[in-house]
Amino acid sequence: MSEQTRDSDTPWPASVAILGAGGLIGSGVLYEIVTSGLCRHVTVSDPREGLVRAHAWDVTEAAVTAGLSAPRIDVVPAEELPPADVTVVAASRPEEPGRSRLTFATVNWELLRTLVPAVEHSVGDDGTLLLLSNPIDILAECLRRTSSLAAHQVLGYSLNDSTRFRSAVARELGVGVERVEAWVLGQHGDAQVPIFSQIRVDGAHVALDEAARRRVVEDIEGFFARWSALQSGRTSGWSSPKGVARMLHGMRDGGVLPTSIATDGTGYAPGSSFLGLPARLGRSGVVGVEEWSLSGHEYGALERAAELVTGVADELTGDVANLP
Ligand SMILES: NC(=O)c1ccc[n+]([C@@H]2O[C@H](COP(=O)([O-])OP(=O)(O)OC[C@H]3O[C@@H](n4cnc5c(N)ncnc54)[C@H](O)[C@@H]3O)[C@@H](O)[C@H]2O)c1
């Protein structure tokens, strides 16, 4: 297959912008999408300019080593980001071991709000924002409230929670994880909602008894503490970029993935918030949501998660009009 033919197989996204491309997640996304041939024109930005230039150089050589033509990677200050089909935001203050994702909310919103004009310009009327900076649901809701972006243009990355749930269910059932379909909806954080009512193995519905559910919940709820105890100073720098590539494929080809999206009118939670839901993705962002029939317990947990996200977003944006 010639380079030209390979390029013409991936006409979308024609361009991706990455804010926070010096960091583990941002540079991982750059590596993943360029070396997989998913996108060959990427604009990257990070205050650590030398580091992001080094990433761009190294990734270019990785692509050439992989047999691809040289990609175009532009390094610019945030305010010079051009319009892109997809804008990935992984800009963040440093994570500290043991801190909840929620404690990130204030410091990261202070950072993100300074980037709103750059993000608005990069996303424009036709692009999509894919937000990875934590806490994603709260920051996505803050962005929706304070920016000119339409709700369907804002996507929060929450795929890893479902990966961990699938793995825990597979361990519980003693089957290969690739056979398991299992979704976590709700908040990416303490108010995550594992959807036991929709678990499938080899496509067939599987019900777990109470004791098995408890073990699975303990397993997934203990993830963050187990990870933090490693004191590695790193986040999920391999799985998240892989998941971002999966989301871009889903957007390009039309797919359903757990994604943090606006809850308005979805039937999963009353009012207006941001939560992980089974989102139908398209090139313009969110094009719909799968309407599943959940258990009363699951609907209740989603409602509480939405209240939590809305409450913190109210505090951060000073939106007293939405306070009870
Ligand atoms: N949603 C998820 O599933 C998920 C998974 C892993 C990590 N994360 C989150 O992603 C974020 C990034 O994680 P990381 O491990 O890459 O962190 P990191 O500290 O390695 O990288 C953050 C980067 O943001 C840059 N930055 C700071 N201010 C900026 C600005 N004004 N403009 C552009 N860039 C700026 C920093 O210089 C740094 O390079 C964190 O908030 C983390 O919690 C989310």
From TrEMBL:
<feature type="domain" description="Lactate/malate dehydrogenase C-terminal">
    <location>
        <begin position="161"/>
        <end position="206"/>
    </location>
</feature>
<dbReference type="InterPro" id="IPR015955">
    <property type="entry name" value="Lactate_DH/Glyco_Ohase_4_C"/>
</dbReference>
<feature type="transmembrane region" description="Helical">
    <location>
        <begin position="12"/>
        <end position="31"/>
    </location>
</feature>
<keyword id="KW-0812">Transmembrane</keyword>
<dbReference type="InterPro" id="IPR022383">
    <property type="entry name" value="Lactate/malate_DH_C"/>
</dbReference>
<comment type="similarity">
    <text>Belongs to the LDH/MDH superfamily. LDH family.</text>
</comment>
<dbReference type="InterPro" id="IPR001236">
    <property type="entry name" value="Lactate/malate_DH_N"/>
</dbReference>
<keyword id="KW-0472">Membrane</keyword>
<keyword id="KW-0560">Oxidoreductase</keyword>
<keyword id="KW-0520">NAD</keyword>
<dbReference type="InterPro" id="IPR036291">
    <property type="entry name" value="NAD(P)-bd_dom_sf"/>
</dbReference>
<dbReference type="InterPro" id="IPR001557">
    <property type="entry name" value="L-lactate/malate_DH"/>
</dbReference>
<dbReference type="Pfam" id="PF00056">
    <property type="entry name" value="Ldh_1_N"/>
</dbReference>
<dbReference type="Pfam" id="PF02866">
    <property type="entry name" value="Ldh_1_C"/>
</dbReference>
<feature type="domain" description="Lactate/malate dehydrogenase N-terminal">
    <location>
        <begin position="16"/>
        <end position="156"/>
    </location>
</feature>
<keyword id="KW-1133">Transmembrane helix</keyword>
<protein>
    <submittedName>
        <fullName>Malate dehydrogenase</fullName>
    </submittedName>
</protein>
